Amino acid sequence: MALSEFDLIHRFFQSESLQCGQGVILGIGDDCALLNLRPGEQLAVSMDTMVSGVHFPVDAAAEDIGYRLLAANLSDLAAMGAEPVWFTLALTIPSVNESWLEGFSRGLAQLAGEFHLSLVGGDTTRGPLTLTVQVHGRIPVGQALRRDGAYAGDHIYVSGSLGDSAAGLALALNPPSLLSATDSYLLERFYRPTPRVEMGRLLRPYASAVIDISDGLLGDLQHILQRSHMGAELELQHVPLSEPLLATMPRQDALLKALTGGEDFELCFTVNPADEANMLRELQRLQVPLTRIGTITHRTGLRMALDGEEFSLPAHLGFQHF
Amino acid sequence: MALSEFDLIHRFFQSESLQCGQGVILGIGDDCALLNLRPGEQLAVSMDTMVSGVHFPVDAAAEDIGYRLLAANLSDLAAMGAEPVWFTLALTIPSVNESWLEGFSRGLAQLAGEFHLSLVGGDTTRGPLTLTVQVHGRIPVGQALRRDGAYAGDHIYVSGSLGDSAAGLALALNPPSLLSATDSYLLERFYRPTPRVEMGRLLRPYASAVIDISDGLLGDLQHILQRSHMGAELELQHVPLSEPLLATMPRQDALLKALTGGEDFELCFTVNPADEANMLRELQRLQVPLTRIGTITHRTGLRMALDGEEFSLPAHLGFQHF
């Protein structure tokens, strides 16, 4: 059945669960959306694209694609300490497949409902499956968590466990004929990452620098170090690895996944030791593990040790080109 | 040469001419951009995607693609009466072609410089050439020009001339071996549309409804009529057609291009006759033709006459599916 763009938008993208946000003066249906910030707030925006066959397998379930697309974007707001309010969607699809659209929209709506987001606009075009979301958050002026505030002596933390998503992607690309509980956990971590939005908000008074882990711990920590003009020492035996990950591969391989495999969407942050106890007390209620993995140093560069021995990455994992 | 995403962004998308906007607290290089509205302002956002081979020929010049992509988005802000300030870019490219990127970036920068826009963020991914831009404008609270304010008796105006872009697209798809001056004009109108940003701003106190013409006059006017719950009568002999368009095809064909061929990015707006003289006086300084083409009616539906005779579209031009 041929659908007009208007019908398609109305049918799949204007449900109540996609319209939970505040401050929407005018949403889908005019030349622009009109949005209101409250006095004393700044706007935080981030944009992510996912391409079929590049960022997810071509046979990925539409619902998972929708969920993951929005989760990845929300993770950027989380890393800023911003409160999500609105998003826009550029949907490029090869044809109008109603069951695909229905699933995709359901995946988006799950997260949008949970975080009280409104879909306020976007574009629908025909072409190779490519999805871009921009999220919009609000944050009191001056309270944003940036990458450039780490200072020598700050402790380096990560949330949750790392490497699961990279292992899940490997499973998604080569699915076993029978899924074990371990496989299911890792696939879920790839397709359904948890954006640490509330954690970011709670970190506002404590963290000196924050980033979300989307390129692997080492690559993302390097961004903090470069923007802050600092170095770091990591004790890799502390890097949090999940039981399911350790059940599927040797510890060294799991560690490499954690260090260089991206898209866990956990937070990596630095905190002054004087603020550490208050931070830990405040964040307890989230019941998400927080692990100290190292220390910021004046000396630039990143030095790593594993069980007391100096550690270097295998050369082929050292740098990722576009 | 392989470029990191960081290098690519730095080299092609952080030039001064792409950083002219105000209110940027934090631009490219953190998890989010941080942006400030001024007190009493609302945010207007719009997003557009262009896909190679769908929205422009696969062999289109990169500079033209960049220009047109941003122009189309700015046109949506113009139709809202908003002042452009920031944009984000999702760039999906099959490979890193430096001369293409250089041209594309130059096309963006021309318009960004002219309208004092900053490129504040986005994403760069590998995949089939697909480009999404979101523009962000600001507008004093309550002054946005919407689609839903047209009222019976209002006069319907369009800016510039219509149909040129559709004729230009036909030339772009089947370029003649030798370009005449007429051809060049029409191609320029396709690749380098002029977003009517200043016109939108000047229309704020006068227009009752505004839309930009991106789907053809009739389709876009229908959006105003539907949102305003009104009808219209058009006198098609007044629809402005350019000399170059009329030089390349019979008047009837030119008129059909104007009515149903999209992407002229002119403004179509309605104005109460009591405000008309002031509007015309104020907008004179733009030196852009404004043409009255009809009247809004209580009776819903769109009635058209050409030289006093009732006019209907050929059936195959009546409705466009996605």
UniProtKB/TrEMBL annotation, chains A, B:
Binding residues for Mg(2+) 4: D31, S46, D76
Enzyme Commission code: 2.7.4.16
InterPro entries tied to this protein: PurM-like_C_dom, PurM-like_C_sf, PurM-like_N, PurM-like_N_sf, ThiL-like
Keywords: ATP-binding, Kinase, Magnesium, Metal-binding, Nucleotide-binding, Thiamine biosynthesis, Transferase
Domain PurM-like C-terminal: 152-304
Pathway field: Cofactor biosynthesis; thiamine diphosphate biosynthesis; thiamine diphosphate from thiamine phosphate: step 1/1
Catalytic activity line of the entry: thiamine phosphate + ATP = thiamine diphosphate + ADP
Gene3D superfamilies attached to this UniProt entry: PurM-like C-terminal domain, PurM-like, N-terminal domain
Membrane-traversing stretches: none
Residues noted as binding ATP in the record, renumbered to the chain: G122, D123, R147, S214
UniProt-listed Pfam families: AIRS, AIRS_C
Keyword Heme in record: no
Residues reported to bind Mg(2+) 3: D31, D76, D212
Residues reported in the UniProt entry to bind Mg(2+) 1: D48, D123
Domain PurM-like N-terminal, first and last residues per copy: 29-138
Binding residues annotated for Mg(2+) 2, in chain numbering: D48, D76
Function according to Swiss-Prot or TrEMBL: Catalyzes the ATP-dependent phosphorylation of thiamine-monophosphate (TMP) to form thiamine-pyrophosphate (TPP), the active form of vitamin B1.
Note: Reaction mechanism of ThiL seems to utilize a direct, inline transfer of the gamma-phosphate of ATP to TMP rather than a phosphorylated enzyme intermediate.
Family to which the UniProt record says this protein belongs: Belongs to the thiamine-monophosphate kinase family.
NCBIfam families for this protein: thiL
PANTHER family reported in the protein's UniProt record: THIAMINE-MONOPHOSPHATE KINASE
Protein name in UniProt: Thiamine-monophosphate kinase
Organism: Pokkaliibacter plantistimulans
Gene name tied to this protein: thiL
